[in-house]
Design a protein that fits this description.
The structure holds 2 protein chains of 2 kinds. By secondary structure, chain A is an all-alpha fold. Chain A contains 14 helices and no strands. Chain B has a two-stranded antiparallel sheet. Classes of the chains: A mainly alpha, B mainly alpha.
């Protein structure tokens, strides 16, 4: 090129760059897309198609019956409801105690409390499980959903407190100070001034606590009985005992994780914000 | 519940010290409910595990004080050392691979191109997906005869692999799943770092005629190094504790070829009900994790330092 770049070739080069980047991004994303496509494909194929070689991506006949079978033969309605109860209760309790705690810690600048939360994140889940398992046994709670609700607090409370500390540290103090000069009690300041501003932070904490509690597996395999299984435990039990046929197994796996995946796509912004804030501070 | 009251007392004095103003509101009632819950489900298990670890107790039998017997047994337990080795290999691989790929992905997603937001959302999905459900589908994909992965390999002329069914390839195969799932987290952390970079150095580098690789190597890399270290710390802590995927796919097998400390700990406590020994293992495991985190944080402090020097 003899002359300096004029405007038009520059735009053309930018367009080319963007197409190149799009292509690179598609390559990066392809393992994710292919995996989930294959998961859907497995769940919609009859046994004969799942055993075919070379493998079939889109079968001639869709095996919707796989989904029916999961719900009819495996008590999946009950396990779904158990999951909703455990995750719902653990997340709500965590919000009720964790949001005020995050506020208090942020205002007190109590760094020691934050360190406890950080060490809790480092501790392997199993080391909570042994003592609490024994405690629940003594209290005769095994066989109910309570042990799982209580132990899921190990997951949800640190997430909520951690995210709320970070959030309240960034909200302005001026309004709160003005309110307390006007004679508002700390509780009124929190409820009427701080809490409304913190709504986006609460949404982030809620979504992340919900997802990580829903996905939890290790607490369930020890604490759940036949009637108190949550979905991750139920799907694992299908794998180990009840059947080896792939279609219903993949259908069950998809049922377990679909609520979370849908939430991820819809609440992408909150999740990304929460994870980067939590992660960057976690160091 | 002594630790709780100590915490409360401490926050009370902190409050008095840091806020001498007469207007200082009393914030500690906000924290007390959480302290009680954290005391019950987090601090109590720590203390109780420590106590159990100096006892000899298999569920259904007599509990006796054992001193350091469990720890001595651990030091001479070949299976424990083997699981430590497996954990080390798994952790190193499950940190390095996502770090490399996640940084690459972040460099791509930092630029502007069509569908960027949507594709980033798709890329993040594995991290949020239920690990057990994911593990189940990977198990089917790894199947030596019917699995789709061996078919894909055959298309590019590579012979069938045994994946998780072979003692030599089981850990790399598990790392493949772990990498697939956790690369997005590194991507998000590095993306945060890239967003905070100043523009000016790149402008002057462009004037000096630096190419893309030189700009990455001498500008971007040193500046995002602290973020990479945060990624390494978080990934290492998560990888060393990894349980769901390994347990759901191999239960530590074939034989004990993929038995990490966490899996061995689970088997000891909940398959053999050897509570005392399991607790000692949990304590040692916890110490290892904290030590690893401290070492990595020290390295991180030094990265920040050398970063300051080069500037």
């Amino acid at each position: 090129m003899e002359r300096p770049l004029t405007k038009r070739p520059l735009i053309r080069r930018k367009t080319l760059d963007r197409i190149g980047l799009l292509f690179a991004a598609l390559v990066m994303v392809s393992p994710v897309v292919l995996f989930f496509l294959w998961m859907i494909s497995l769940s919609l194929k009859y046994e004969i198609d799942n055993g075919a070689y070379p493998p079939i991506l889109i079968p001639e006949n869709f095996a919707w019956s796989n989904y029916v079978q999961v719900f009819r033969e495996n008590n999946f309605f009950l396990y779904f409801w158990n999951s909703v109860l455990v995750t719902g209760a653990a997340t709500l309790l965590a919000l009720i105690i964790g949001v005020p705690a995050g506020y208090g810690i942020a205002r007190l600048k109590a760094e020691k409390a934050a360190i406890v939360i950080m060490i809790a994140r480092m501790t392997p889940g199993l080391s909570f499980l042994i003592p609490l398992f024994l405690l629940f046994q003594w209290l005769n709670l095994l066989g109910t959903l309570w042990p799982q609700i209580i132990i899921h607090l190990v997951v949800t409370v640190p997430i909520v407190v951690w995210i709320m500390i970070g959030y309240f540290e960034t909200t302005p103090m001026e309004l709160e100070e003005a309110a307390s000069i006007d004679g508002a009690t700390p509780w009124q300041v929190f409820r009427l001034v701080a809490l409304p501003i913190a709504k986006p932070g609460i949404v982030v904490a809620f979504i992340l606590a919900l997802i990580f509690s829903w996905n939890n597996f290790v607490f369930g395999i020890v604490l759940a009985s036949r009637t108190t299984r949550t979905l991750p435990v139920a799907v694992y039990n299908m794998l180990s005992f009840e059947q080896v046929s792939w279609g219903p197994l993949a259908a069950a796996a998809l049922i377990v994780t679909l609520p979370v995946l849908v939430l991820t796509l819809f609440a992408q912004k909150q999740i990304v914000a929460g994870l980067t804030a939590g992660a960057v501070k976690g160091g | 519940m002594a630790s709780v009251s100590i915490e409360t007392a401490r926050t009370e004095t902190d409050n008095k010290r840091s806020k001498p103003s007469r207007l200082a509101p009393n914030y500690w009632p906000f924290v007390v409910p959480a302290l009680i819950v954290i005391g019950a489900v987090i601090v109590f298990p720590w203390v109780f595990t420590l106590w159990m670890s100096v006892n000899s107790w298999t569920l259904g039998q007599e509990q006796t004080f054992a001193g350091l017997d469990n720890y001595i047994r651990l030091a001479t337990d070949f299976r424990f050392w083997e699981s430590l080795w497996h954990t080390l290999i798994f952790t190193v691989l499950a940190v390095v691979a996502p770090l490399f790929l996640g940084t690459l992905a972040a460099l791509i997603f930092d630029a502007q191109f069509p569908l960027r937001g949507f594709l980033r959302g798709v890329f993040v999905m594995p991290m949020m997906a239920t690990p057990v459900a994911i593990a189940l589908v990977w198990t089917m994909m790894f199947h030596p005869q019917l699995g789709v992965l061996n078919y894909l390999l055959s298309l590019v002329g590579i012979g069938p692999q045994e994946w998780i069914y072979n003692r030599y390839s089981v850990i790399p195969s598990l790392v493949l799943v772990e990498t697939w799932q956790w690369t997005p987290l590194i991507m998000l952390i590095v993306l945060g770092g890239l967003a905070s970079l100043p523009r000016e150095p790149y402008e002057s580098a462009e004037i000096d005629g630096a190419n893309a690789w030189q700009k990455f190597r001498y500008l971007t890399l040193p500046m995002i190094a602290p973020f990479l270290m945060i990624g390494v710390i978080i990934r290492a802590i998560d990888a060393i504790k990894s349980f769901d995927i390994i347990y759901a796919m191999t239960q530590g097998g074939p034989g004990t070829a993929s038995e990490t400390i966490n899996i061995y700990l689970y088997n000891t406590a909940f398959s053999y009900y050897d509570i005392g020994y399991g607790s000692a293992m949990a304590v040692v495991f916890f110490v290892i994790i904290v030590a690893l985190s401290l070492v990595l944080m020290m390295v991180r402090a030094r990265t920040n330092w050398s970063d300051m020097e080069t500037r």
